[in-house]
Specification:
Shape: globular
Structural class: alpha/beta
Bound molecules: 2-phosphoglycolic acid
Strand content: 15-25%
Radius of gyration: 17 Å
Number of strands: 8
Helix content: 40-55%
Order of helices and strands: EHEHEHEHHEHHEHHEHEH
Distance between the termini: 10 Å
Number of helices: 11
Largest sheet: 8 strands, parallel, barrel
Length: about 250
């Protein structure tokens, strides 16, 4: 754990839960998980459910909320897109950038991810920049190069601090295959090294780096115990209030 940082438990709901299901989730999650001062919890519902989340969580300011994506421009003729400024106005605090599903399905390349990160910061939101290698890249021995390239591109556009990173090996997302704690430790160390190389040592030391990819109640404890893991970004297991509450309640060692 980075000194002084409270671990972050983040729920990426992807294209699940409309406004009604969102309210039902918040009610049940709030009953199962009481606010704790030693950790942070954030949710990324679909943008269309953001307002419902905020209303449902009105009595629970500890449950933070963000959007899963923003457009790389401030505004314009981009049918279907949401800007960072609009997300901030609607009450988001956080925004993801560069999730591997965006990279793969929507063609978000490193330059687009960097531009999105810049818009997120300009709008006063806190970005979580997702990075990680595919199985082909890992097996070709490209882990270090891929992370280095993804981080370099972002830090060229956004040289200051204020970023949270999520290391998400693509082969572990939604597959049930989790990186071992040793894999996570190794990759997080590479991430920190790349941040130092393309930013500086202070930035690397203070960087918050989440792990993501098939995190569940059964593996949260060992993943959080891995050196350099400052929290988690959870997909599938965050859709169920009981399992996400169990993840958020993990004992921290
Ligand atoms: P998963 O997704 O937990 O379902 O593997 C993680 C993510 O995509 O952020």
């Amino acid at each position: 754990m980075t000194d002084g940082a409270r671990p972050l438990f983040a729920a990426n709901w992807k294209m699940f839960k409309g406004p009604r299901e969102t309210v039902a989730f918040v009610d049940e999650f709030a009953a199962r998980y009481a606010a704790r001062t030693d950790r942070r919890v954030a949710f990324f519902p679909p943008a269309i459910s953001l307002e419902a989340f905020i209303r449902a969580a009105i009595g629970r300011p500890d449950l933070e909320v963000g959007v899963q994506d923003v457009h790389q421009e401030q505004d314009g003729a981009h049918t279907g897109a949401v800007s960072a400024r609009m997300a901030a106005e609607a009450g988001a605090i956080w925004a993801l950038a560069g999730h591997s599903e965006r990279r793969r399905e929507f063609g978000d390349d490193d330059a687009v991810v960097a531009a999105k990160t810049a818009r997120i910061l300009e709008a006063g939101l806190k970005p979580i920049v997702c990075i990680g290698e595919t199985l082909v890249e890992r097996e070709a021995g490209q882990l270090r190069n891929v992370l280095d390239r993804q981080i370099r591109e972002v830090l060229l556009d956004v040289p200051g601090g204020g970023l949270t990173w999520a290391y998400e090996p693509v082969w572990a997302i939604g597959t049930g295959r989790t990186a071992s704690p040793a894999d996570a430790e190794e990759a997080h160390a590479l991430v920190r090294r790349a941040i130092a190389a393309h930013g500086n040592d202070d930035l690397a030391r203070s960087a918050v780096i989440l792990y993501g990819g098939s995190v569940k109640p059964g593996n949260i404890e060992e993943l959080m115990a891995a050196p350099g893991v400052d929290g988690v970004l959870v997909g599938g297991a965050s859709l169920d209030p009981e399992s996400f509450a169990a993840i958020c309640e993990v004992e921290l060692t």
